[in-house]
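Homework help board

Subject: predicted structure for assignment chain

Our instructor gave us this sequence and asked us to write out the predicted structure in token form, then describe one feature. I got the tokens but I'm not sure how to describe them. Can anyone check?
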Amino acid sequence: MAPRDDYRECPLYELHHQYLTRDEIDDVVRRTVKETLTSMGIDAADPIEMQRDFQTLRDWRRAGGAIRSKGIMTLIAILTAGALGALWIGVKSVLKS
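My token output:
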């Protein structure tokens, strides 16, 4: 079904339809963003503090990734050392026999 083009001829068009100015749109967007941030627990009134909070979160995320990476490398080193130790013990026992 094609959209209707005669909606402007409706007698209630002017009553129910209004155009927003650029300033009104900016105000609506600004309030919406502020309310959204507030509902998420972020204080939009102090953007520098918000940036510091995000920086702290970024630092924690990077630290977590580094710890995970180093933990995996340590696990690999322990398993490799264990396997080499077991191999060495096996070689020694074969050579003594």
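Reply (TA_rk): Your tokens look well-formed. For the description, you could write something like this. Residues 62 and 68 are 10 Å apart (CA to CA). That's the kind of observation they're looking for.
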